[in-house]
Amino acid sequence: MKKITLIYSGGSDSYTLLNYALSKDFNVDCLTFTYGQKHNKEIDFASSACKELNVKHSIIDIGDNSEIVFGNSSLTSVESKIPHGSYKEETMQSTIVPNRNMIFISYATAYSISNNIQEVWYGAHAGDHFIYPDCRPEFLNAMNVAAGLCDSAKIKIEAPFISYTKGEIIKIGLDLNLDYSKAWTCYEGKQNPCGKCGSCVERAEAFSDNNAIDPLI
Amino acid sequence: MKKITLIYSGGSDSYTLLNYALSKDFNVDCLTFTYGQKHNKEIDFASSACKELNVKHSIIDIGDNSEIVFGNSSLTSVESKIPHGSYKEETMQSTIVPNRNMIFISYATAYSISNNIQEVWYGAHAGDHFIYPDCRPEFLNAMNVAAGLCDSAKIKIEAPFISYTKGEIIKIGLDLNLDYSKAWTCYEGKQNPCGKCGSCVERAEAFSDNNAIDPLI
Question: Are A73 and A98 in contact, with CB atoms under 8 Å apart?
């Protein structure tokens, strides 16, 4: 049985990716990172889902170095407000956490080496390409080369949804009968999704594309 | 003036690299990582040197996830003893901290993006190639491609000493009149260097190559 390490934020993309991997009978270890993000709501959702799915889940606390390492990203800095609107807008630039994916992938690669796992999966998708360079295919390819050279164990990095829209990802999940009330997407950590941040707007479009109702709304 | 981010362990290679960069009039920000290593002696040496050189120094505490992420590396696991001998021996494999350089480089890249710095330097050298895959030129090249793609800021990764032996690095430092009592190399964190670990053995050879005396011995 293929073993993979899956970077699991607790959001709808990685929730779908996790269930997709389990549907292929892969043996999945999930990693969730705490790095100084403004709220832990996604992490709680990640923990609950892994428990329910009986999947090994490690929460890796890499400390809160956000001010010095990530500058004034609106996902980590209290001084920077999370913008409203779609990812296509200039204001969304503040939601970039500089080089976050390389940091997560590097840890997941180390974990894979230490645990005899050959592949790292993460949930980048086509909707991310416009704004987030570290979700683009060329970045994935470069990380694949680096991960194949960093150790005698040649780890592969995969992002199976990298060419899919968010709507196509939700379709995969709906076909798997997933309950999306178990995935938190909103950049805010309030009781209910704000409905206005880029992440909420994109999730709403994805459900709408599938003529489906988001159970969290 | 060129600004660089330098990954500074406090050991003799990065101590030489830091002084080499300063001798070229580069503006240097140093990053030192605490990641669950067995002792903090190198970090204290790094702090002292940066203070004396009036260089901006940030200690990035990325938490102690060593057990889960780094397995039983002898540099982090209390259950694994630091081996004695030269790097050419099989027993030295236990001193590998899986994917440590990619983790450090990914943070240093994030820091560079957040602080408008264009280059990351780290102290890999030719003596590391045999045992540490993440000190080889092909790994450096792959990380350079990835760092150039992870963000709209295209960060470069440099390891100016990657083709130099440790003896050649010490020669550069001696030519710069460096005081190597200010660089800690030993894998153990005792009062004096153990003289027996791979790192001590290699440092002794490097001084010997230059007919020089190590001030720490």
Answer: yes
The reply to whether B106 touches chain A by the CB within 8 Å rule is yes
Does domain B3-209 match CATH 3.40.50.620? yes
Instruction: Give the global pTM.
Output: 0.95
Please report, for chain B, the start and end positions of each structural domain, with discontinuous segments joined by +.
Answer: 3-209
Q: What is the pLDDT of residues A4-51, one digit of tens each?
A: 999 999 999 999 999 999 999 999 999 999 988 888 899 999 999 999
- Cβ contact A100–B107 (<8 Å): no
Give yes or no for a contact between B173 and B13, defined as CB atoms under 8 angstroms apart.
Answer: no
**Lookup: tokens for B133:** 């895959």
What is the H or E stretch that residue A199 is in?
helix A198-209
- So what's the pLDDT on residue A77? 84
Q: Do B69 and A146 lie within an 8 Å CB cutoff?
A: no
In this structure, what is the dihedral angle of CA atoms A163, A154, B140, B9, given to the nearest 10 degrees? 120
Residue A66 has what DSSP assignment? I
Task: Map A153-175 to HEC letters.
Answer: CCCEEECCCCCCCHHHHHHHHHH
Is residue B19 a contact partner of residue B180, using CB atoms and an 8 Å limit?
no
Phi, psi of A127 (to 5 degrees): -65, -20
Say whether A146 and B142 touch across the interface (CB within 8 A): yes
Residue B147 has pLDDT above 80, yes or no: yes
CB B163 within 8 A of CB B126: yes
At A58 the three-state DSSP class reads strand
Task: Tell me the nearest-neighbour CA distance from A214 into chain B, angstroms.
Answer: 32
A 47-66 near B (Cβ less than 8 A): 58, 60-63, 65
- How big is chain A by its Cα radius of gyration, in Å? 16
Rounded distance, CA A133 to CA B151, Å?
5
Each residue's pLDDT tens digit, A40-83 = 899 999 999 999 999 999 999 998 888 889 988 888 888 888 88
How is A108-150 classified by DSSP, letter by letter? HHHHHHHTT--EEE----GGGTTT-GGGSHHHHHHHHHHHTTS
